[in-house]
TrEMBL record:
InterPro entries the record matches: Inner_membrane_protein (IPR052937), UCP028777 (IPR031308), YccF (IPR005185)
Keywords: Cell inner membrane, Cell membrane, Membrane, Transmembrane, Transmembrane helix
Pfam families referenced in this protein's UniProt entry, alphabetically: YccF
Name of this chain's protein: Inner membrane protein YccF
Superkingdom of source: Bacteria
Record membrane topology: Multi-pass membrane protein
Subcellular location field: Cell inner membrane
Length: 143
């Protein structure tokens, strides 16, 4: 089911937002200061192409320790990101979600766009993993 969802997602708009993420990543790589943001853009842009079956989690949930992206520098980076690009990518995902909500069959895609909108507001310190790994990291295998 994930494969079918990803194919429909890609053909019906996922490619647009994925390319938007990659474009922002290319712009971020123009300066040396933007490299951390650019890296996050490419990871999340790839996630935007085929999001079903994967989930974004903070790296410290997986490793149980802070790193540069999950510490105070990551928080500062996310504030800068929010004003430079995050809000614009979030608006793109919200508009895509509204377009998907119009049809009943598009509701799962709209929900995925809303998840991506939240991620786009503060992507530094997050990584993309399979849903099972995310669940295990968050709940330790408990239900």
């Amino acid at each position: 089911m994930r494969t079918i969802g990803n194919i429909i997602w890609f053909l019906c708009g996922g490619v647009v937002m994925g390319l938007a993420w990659w474009l922002v990543g290319l712009i971020a790589f123009v300066s040396l200061i933007g490299i951390p943001w650019g890296r996050a853009c490419f990871v999340i842009g790839t996630f935007s192409f085929f999001p079903f079956g994967k989930e974004a989690v903070y790296r410290n949930e997986l490793t149980f320790r802070e790193d540069v992206g999950t510490g105070i520098l990551g928080k500062i980076g996310n504030v800068i990101w929010f004003f430079l690009a995050g809000i614009w990518l979030a608006i793109g995902h919200v508009l895509s979600a509204v377009a998907c909500f119009v049809t009943i069959i598009g509701i799962p895609f709209a929900l995925q766009h809303l998840k991506l909108a939240v991620i786009s507001l503060a992507p530094i310190g997050q990584t993309i993993v399979p849903k099972e790994v995310a669940y295990g990291a968050r709940y330790g295998g408990r239900r």
